[in-house]
Amino acid sequence: xxxxxxxxxxxxxxxxxxxxxxxxxxxxxxxxxxxxxxxxxxxxxxxxxxxxxxxxxxxxxxxxxxxxxxxxxxxxxxxxxxxxxxxxxxxxxxxxxxxxxxxxxxxxxxxxxxxxxxxxxxxxxxxxxxxxxxxxxxxxxxxxxxxxxxxxxxxxxxxxxxxxxxxxxxxxxxxxxxxxxxxxxxxxxxxxxxxxxxxxxxxxxxxxxxxxxxxxxxxxxxxxxxxxxxxxxxxxxxxxxxxxxxxxxxxxxxxxxxxxxxxxxxxxxxxxxxxxxxxxxxxxxxxxxxxxxxxxxxxxxxxxxxxxxxxxxxxxxxxxxxxxxxxxxxxxxxxxxxxxxxxxxxxxxxxxxxxxxxxxxxxxxxxxxxxxxxxxxxxxxxxxxxxxxxxxxxxxxxxxxxxxxxxxxxxxxxxxxxxxxxxxxxxxxxxxxxxxxxxxxxxxxxxxxxxxxxxxxxxxxxxxxxxxxxxxxxxxxxxxxxxxxxxxxxxxxxxxxxxxxxxxxxxxx
Length: 509
Known about the structure:
Layout: H1 24-28, H2 32-56, H3 61-73, E1 86-87, H4 93-103, H5 105-124, H6 136-159, H7 167-172, H8 174-181, H9 187-204, H10 216-231, H11 243-246, H12 261-286, H13 296-312, E2 319-320, H14 322-330, H15 337-352, H16 362-376, H17 379-388, H18 390-405, H19 408-427, E3 430-435, E4 442-450, H20 455-463, E5 471-481, H21 483-496, E6 505-507
Parallel strand pairs: 4-5, 5-6
Antiparallel strand pairs: 1-2, 3-4
Helix pairs in contact: 2-3, 2-10, 2-14, 2-15, 2-16, 3-13, 3-15, 4-5, 5-12, 5-13, 6-8, 6-16, 6-18, 6-19, 9-10, 9-16, 12-13, 12-14, 17-18, 18-19, 20-21
C-alpha cells in the first residue's frame, strides 16, 4: 500500500528570482544564451554560402565574407526585422556576374552603393510595403530563372571549364561541355567532388538530429576538402588574397560613371530585386516565429545602409537571405543579437583564418550553389498554379524563360508587364445584353468595365445589330469606361444607322 507523502515534507519549488535579484547581464540580455547558440549555427550556415556566392559572382572570395560581416554588424544592429539575417545571396549572383563582366570590378562598388542609397530613399519615402504588391508569380519566376542560370553555370565550374556568357549559351552548351570534360584528365575528379558535395547536402537531412547540428553545406565542404587533401585530387581551389587585399573601395573616377544609361539600369535592377527579395523574405520569416513583426520601411532602410557600406568597401550587394534567416529562427534565436554575433564570427574567421579558404575545392562550392539553385525553382508552386491559376503559372514560366534568354532585369520587367496586362484583362469584364422585342427600338445594355482590351469584342457585337432599326445603347451599367471605348462607341453610334432610321440613342454612363 502506497503512502502519500505529507505536504509539509515535500520541498517547495524555489520561485524564480526577482528581476532585481538577477545579474545585471541577464537583465540586459535575457536571451543571450539562446542568441549565442543560434549565432554559431547561422555562422556555420553562412560561411560556405558567402564564399560560394562570391566565387560564382566572379569576385574574390573574401568579398562575400565582407558582405556577410556588414550584414551582421551593420544591418543586424538596425531596426526592421529582428530575426532576419542579411548577406550575399545566390539570387543576385547572375546580376553581379553580368555587372562585373560589363563594367569591371571597380565599378561594382559604385553600383552597390548607389543601389543602397536608392533603397534608403525608398525606405524614407515609406515605399517598403508597396513591394508586397508585386505579383508573387513574378517573384517566383525570377527565382526560378536565377536558379536555372546558377545550376547551368556551376556545372561548368564543377567540370573545370569556362561557362558561356549568356544564360541560353550556358544551357545549350552543357552537353558539349560534359563531352569535352571527359577528355580532360582532371575533369572526372572535379565532377565527382561536385556531385559528392550535392549528395552530402541532400542526404545530410536524413541523419539523426544530433549530427544535423552541423549544417549540411558546411559538412559537405569540409568532407570535400578532406577528400581532395587525402587523395591529392587535381581539383582547383579558392584563390585567396587576404581580407585587406580583397577590399578595394571604388576610386574617384568610378563615382563619375552612374550617369551612364546602362549603369543606371543595373543600379535600378540591384535596388529593386534586392529590396523585393529582402521584403518577401521578411514576410516568410514572420510566419516562422511569434515575435515582433517586420517594419517594412525600416527594414528597407536597414538594407539600404548595409548596401551603401558594402558599396563603399567594394563588396557584394546584400539581401536578406531566407536560408540563414530560417536557420536563425530554427536555432532558437530570440533577438537581433544572434545576427550581430554571426557577423562577429565571420569577422574573426576572415581576420584570423583567411588562408583556410585556399583549401576549399571550387567544385564543392559549385555543388553547394547547384543545390541552392535547385531550391530556388518552385516546382510545387508551378504545379499548384497550373491547377488553379494557369495565367499566373504562365507568367511565372515566361519570367523565368525571359531571365534565361536575356538578362535578369529585362526578364523581371517582362514578367511585371505580363502581370499588369493579365490584371487589366481580368479587371475589364464587360457584358453586352441585347433585348429585341420585335417592335420598337433594340435595347443594348453594357455593364462592367469597358476598356480598350475588350473593345474589339464590343464593336463586333454592336456592328452585328441591324442598321434599319432604332437602337438604344444603355451605358448606365458600366463601372468604368475608358477614353478609347468612349470614342469608339461614339463613332459607332454616329455612323451605324442607315438613312431614314433614327440615330442611335446613347444613355450616358
